[in-house]
Amino acid sequence: MKRAVYPGSFDPMTYGHLDIINRAAEIFDVLIVSVLNNNQKTPLFSVEERVKILKEATKHLPNVQVDSFSGLLTNYAAVNDLHVAVRGLRAITDFEYELQLAQTNRMLSGGKLDTVFLTTSLEYAYLSSSSVKEIASFGGDISKAVPDFVGEMMFEKYRIGQLDRQTR
Ligand code: ADP
Fold this sequence. Notes:
By secondary structure, this protein is an alpha/beta fold. It has a single domain, classed as Rossmann fold (3-Layer(aba) Sandwich), CATH 3.40.50. It contains six helices and five strands. It has helices at 15-27, 47-57, 73-79, 92-108, 129-137, 148-157, and strands at residues 3-8, 30-36, 64-69, 84-89, 114-119. The strands form two sheets. Strands 1-2-3 form a three-stranded parallel sheet, sandwiched between helices. Strands 4-5 form a two-stranded parallel sheet. The radius of gyration is 16 Å and the shape is globular. The structure holds adenosine-5'-diphosphate (ADP). Residues 8-10, 14, 16-17, 20, 36, 87-88, 90, 94, 120, 124, 127-129 line the site of adenosine-5'-diphosphate (ADP). Residues 8-10, 14, 16-17, 20, 36, 87-88, 90, 94, 120, 124, 127-129 line the site of adenosine-5'-diphosphate.
């Protein structure tokens, strides 16, 4: 059984993440999407909410599980006997950070955790959770970025009513 973990903040999950999940689920027998509980960032959604969103959005994929973790990915991977991490690459700007992260994880795990990169589908290359949050906070159209139920949850967080929204 080839198992892999796709770790990330997913605050919130976008269609870009979902594209990586769909494709990784074709490659691996089991894909565990795991939400990082990072207390250095102030998230829009709680870990529980982010897990719920991911579960709802991936319910059509029987080999995808959703979990969360805090602390080092290498510890989480070791405890769960996971040896492959999946990450997405959008542009060259992601590359330097992702390369450093992958090499650090490989070193910290004593060579036991490797990272596999999937390049973003072009239609999602511009998408990031932070830009979607910024657009939503002004009532902008995020229908191409996140599923409708996630959009609703975001507008609720920002207290943006129907009348304050641009056409969805
Ligand atoms: P993190 O804080 O760990 O970077 P993110 O939720 O921002 O968490 O991203 C998780 C992973 O998904 C990262 O590898 C990131 O590059 C990738 N990713 C984010 N958005 C996209 C996208 N639109 N297309 C492909 N990969 C993406």
